[in-house]
Design brief:
By secondary structure, this protein is mostly helical. It has one domain: Four Helix Bundle (Hemerythrin (Met), subunit A) (Up-down Bundle), CATH 1.20.120. The radius of gyration is 18 Å and the shape is globular. The termini are far apart.
Length: 169
């Protein structure tokens, strides 16, 4: 590589809202409703990343992800009548155990995010070992959390759209 060539850094993926999503957001703002906690945490994670605070980026991204996975566990418990284990192996709450449990269910649609392991490891290293995360780890964690939060939002909005359509009929 020549000195004049620049290294292209991977960027944070932007996510755009559809017209219907944006309209729903404005309606909620008009009703003084707060966004879901996981969305606020993901937003805070992105802001921390832009300031170079990679530790906060990782912690907020992982917390947003864990909230979404916990919500999926509750949804899976009610739809499959299978309960998340309270005791024994795999009973600890957290990103890895939630994801593994959801992935093992035959009658619940869940696929772990490709970078979930990187997010989990970066979070554990940051929180428990006190290690300073790298730019790439923070970027990967924030993008993975964004994907997970966005997919969860989209599935909730799809369900709400069906519910609203039924109410209108």
């Amino acid at each position: 590589m020549y000195a004049t060539e620049s290294i292209r850094q991977p960027a944070m993926r932007s996510r755009t809202s559809s017209r219907a999503q944006f309209s729903m957001i404005l309606d909620k703002v008009a009703d003084f409703e707060q966004p879901p906690v996981e969305h606020s945490l993901w937003r805070d994670s992105r802001a921390a990343f832009s300031r170079g605070n990679y530790r906060k980026t990782i912690v907020d991204a992982a917390t947003a992800t864990e909230i979404v996975l916990a919500q999926l566990v509750k949804e899976a418990e009610s739809s499959t009548k299978t309960k998340f284990p309270k005791y024994g192996r795999g009973s600890a709450r957290g990103i890895a155990n939630y994801s593994t449990w959801l992935d093992k269910l035959d009658d619940f649609s869940y696929t772990p995010h490709l970078n979930l392991g990187i997010l989990r490891k970066a979070r554990n290293d940051t929180v428990h070992s006190g290690r300073q995360p790298t730019h790439d780890e923070a970027l990967t964690a924030c993008n993975a959390a964004g994907d997970i939060v966005t997919l969860a939002r989209d599935s909730v909005e799809d369900a709400l759209a069906v519910e609203w359509k039924a109410d209108a009929d």
